[in-house]
Amino acid sequence: MNGKTISETRTFSRDDMRAEILNxxxxxxxxxxxxxxxxxxxxxxxxxPFRVIVILYLIVTAWFLACIGLxxxxxxxxRRAPMxxxxxxxxxxxxxxxxxxxxxxxxxxxxxxxxxxxxxxPILVVAPHSSFLDSCIVYATKMSSVIVRKESMDNYVGxxxxxxxxxxxxxxxxxxxxxxxxxxxxxxxxxENWPQVLIFPEGTCTNRSCLITFKPGGFYPGVPVQPVxxxxxxxxxxxxxxxxxxxxxxLLWLTLTQVHSSCxxxxxxxxxxxxxxxxxxxxxxxxVRDVMAKALGIPVLDYTYDDCKLQQRAKQLGIPGAxxxxxxxxxxxxxxxxxxxxxxxxxxxxxxxxxxxxxxNTFASWLGLPYNRDAKRLYDIFLHHGTELVYFPDYLVCAxxxxxxxxxxxxxxxxxxxxxxxxxxxxxxxxxxxxxVTRCLGFGPEETVMTFREADPDGKGYITxxxxxxxxxxxxxxxxxxxxxxxxxxxxx
Length: 493
Prior knowledge:
Layout lengths: L5 H4 L3 H5 L16 H13 L1 H23 L4 H6 L4 H5 L1 H14 L2 E6 L10 E5 L8 H5 L6 E3 L8 H5 L4 E3 L6 H14 L7 E3 L25 E7 L16 H9 L4 E7 L7 H5 L1 H16 L8 H13 L7 H10 L2 H4 L1 H5 L10 E2 L1 H8 L5 H9 L8 E2 H12 L5 H12 L9 H11 L4 H11 L9 H8 L21
Parallel strand pairs: 1-7, 2-5, 2-6, 3-4
Antiparallel strand pairs: 6-7, 8-9
Helix pairs in contact: 4-7, 15-19, 20-21, 21-22, 22-23
């Protein structure tokens, strides 16, 4: 069994048995054929400039009206009491101009259902959140109060956002989350005539393939909420803005060069929480999410943004089992492995003297697991076709990656060196090095050969962990090994 090739040890039967875990943070967008490319080029010349000019004119007009409405009001005034009188009467006009700016860009906004009054539902819960163009919901809901980062107000759009009397989140405030929840509760339960509070509970943009975990902040008040769904039923999806995919400018360009696009906003019936839901905001959030997912006809996925960032990073690095990282995380937690990090104790030179291909009984025994369903599920994730065995180093690498996910990647690499070094001296030959870097750094064959030889300038035929780290520190492209956060930075949402 020890003679298995690299390609064989990287094949997971579970990848063949079921679809890869849905990743709601990826969006692929390309012009598929020559016709689309030619049409886009033509519309870029003859349609785009006209649309941009009209949109800018409308935005500036709305901004000017907002400036008039905010004249004489401080930020403290906006947070202390709702607008009244002539200031409030400007809102319908600004909303009309806002809707016209979308129509000028070729996007028609259609509304289904009825928006509840603030008395019926002080909070509007909007999902899925998939684009910066979702801001149309502010105009469609008569300028409901949004939740925004305070630093986002330092631009010309800030005046328009301020006119909604938003709830501010201060990124540098360690108590920001608690303060925001407190302010949401105060707004939602106030007897004054505040605008409804508008919340995107997913907290980030997805590709609308599912609804991810709802953050419970908007459900703490325990008041009725109105679920609101957004759809973009277009032949070409030029609006979805996820952390892996086209940037904002490309999406805006492609959207404005479409002949026509549309957005559908649907107000669902008001959701009245039970006493149990009032006591448990997370339960309340889950149940509202289920209602919205059913209305949209899409699944729910208990993923957070950080979960998928970690999974995507694992896939890029070639970490074994990366496609099932969420499942592995949950199973390790249920089996107590994530608490004691039992796997790290198994990373020692004696591993090299053991058989690396193990059956279920050996797998469970080495990890000190009970013979139950969760242990078998964890084993099955790493099971190989043909052998019906698990290549134990694959599991250890994945477990070390998860155990050290908040540390620099070099820490995981240290454990991986011990896993794949066949002797107690810590010396690794080129074959073992290839097995290591394809699983931990995502290196291809050419990169593997080049880096090994550069890390072994004397031609000894082997390298140690210290040799590799010394080499890596001289290479700017390997700086990510030493960064505290090795995940890709998301786009600003």
